[in-house]
Amino acid sequence: MTQLRQRMSEDMQVRNFALNTQLSYLQQVSLFARHFGKSPDVLGREDIRTYQVYLTNEKKLASGSIHTAIAALRFLYSVTLERDWAPEEVLPFPKKPQKLPIILSPEEVQQFLGCVLNVKHHAILTTCYAAGLRISEAVQLKTTDIDSQRMVIRVEQGKGQKDRYVMLSPKLLEILRSYWKVCRPEARLFPGDRAGQPITRDAVGQACAKARDLSRLPKPVTPHSLRHAFAVHLLEAGADVRTIQLLLGHRSLATTAHYLRIATNKVCATSSPYELLPRPAPTPPPPAKPQYF
């Protein structure tokens, strides 16, 4: 490990960055350095601009991927290398397209979960929907996080390294108890193949893809789709946005408010003006022309 990589790693550690963020930033800076075959501390503003053009025009990366690369370079040059550049001028973020997730209906969620045949996979994917958890949060659950006395689930150190509590559905509790009787997990609620380690996100993702194929649903389904469905279904059932924000662990209320654009009871609450138009009288078809040949 080079001194520069070590210093950047330490700078992120003292700022308590999430481990996944640290690894992602280090990878992006490594790709940047390899592109030029030089250490980043000898590269300048014009090199950064050239790299941004390369990512956009040649690599044709999605704006989200470019956003991650730029965030990593911003941290490197403004924090670790302490360059006196204005990050927003040298490293502008690309504009992200505003896309709405495709939401499963309650019936589609039930159909999908009914096709998850493995007991452990069924339990964890049901938990993702019933509690609105991120997959990274669900795989880290411990058996002691399930509080059946207070009917809550403790989410320890979720995204942003924040603890929170979410509801424990009585139906989910029944599923988790049935799962426990079969698999007998100890410390980890959803253990993986390696001793002491949780099930991997990839394993859950593969189980999700297999169940989606079995269900023959026309919509894409991922573990995060279940979290989206949790939020929208709560909103459609009358829960307020602030409560949903707390349950999802969103830092900003604006992030949660995006679901207002999806919930049918919000979007469809007003009738289309077309409904106000009088029904036109049916127009009779024109008389058929005689055929002479």
Structure explained in plain terms:
The structure is a single chain. β1 and β2 form a beta hairpin. The radius of gyration is 25 Å and the shape is globular. The protein is built from 14 helices and three strands. It has helices spanning 3-14, 19-36, 45-58, 63-80, 87-90, 106-113, 119-131, 135-138, 170-183, 201-215, 223-236, 241-248, 253-257, 264-267, and strands at 146-147, 152-158, 162-167. With 293 residues, it is mainly α. The model has no long low-confidence stretch (mean pLDDT 88). The longest helix is centred in the first third of the chain and has 18 residues, at 19-36. It has a three-stranded antiparallel sheet with strand order 1-2-3. Residues 99-272 form the Tyr recombinase domain. Belongs to the 'phage' integrase family. Residues 1-81 form the Core-binding (CB) domain. This is Tyrosine-type recombinase/integrase.
